Amino acid sequence: xxxxxxxxxxxxxxxxxxxxxxxxxxxxxxxxxxxxxxxxxxxxxxxxxxxxxxxxxxxxxxxxxxxxxxxxxxxxxxxxxxxxxxxxxxxxxxxxxxxxxxxxxxxxxxxxxxxxxxxxxxxxxxxxxxxxxxxxxxxxxxxxxxxxxxxxxxxxxxxxxxxxxx
Length: 166
Fold this sequence. Notes:
Blueprint: E1 5-9, H1 15-25, H2 27-33, H3 39-42, H4 45-52, E2 56-62, E3 65-74, E4 79-87, H5 96-112, E5 116-122, H6 126-134, E6 138-144, E7 150-157
Parallel strand pairs: 4-5
Antiparallel strand pairs: 1-2, 2-3, 3-4, 5-7, 6-7
């Protein structure tokens, strides 16, 4: 009998596994842009632990192993910023990224009153751009960060809350 992947809120003791997974997952992005100094590869364990207490952080688990994660925060205007959607390379192409994205969107809308979702990826990250477009995100801004990196921001509106009448 195989184990199924579960998605839940991250706990403080998940920080080390998340950081190791983040380091593994962002190697391909660093290679794509020729820049191994990107923030996901230089983030400290203390910084990550601080993030765990300041927003919505979800993990995907296969047994005890963290095989995916995503983070989100919501500003005062209801815009949820979704970051660091990562899936272990051996678990990719099985729908886990989509499950994590849907779960964080649901949590941010229900628990943090998100009205819209925003995320960003680099212009060379075609797989990411295609994935986000397939999930309903549309390009809203392009920003030249450096000579080699142009950041593309994508957004979509949150689904209206379902209201029942008495």
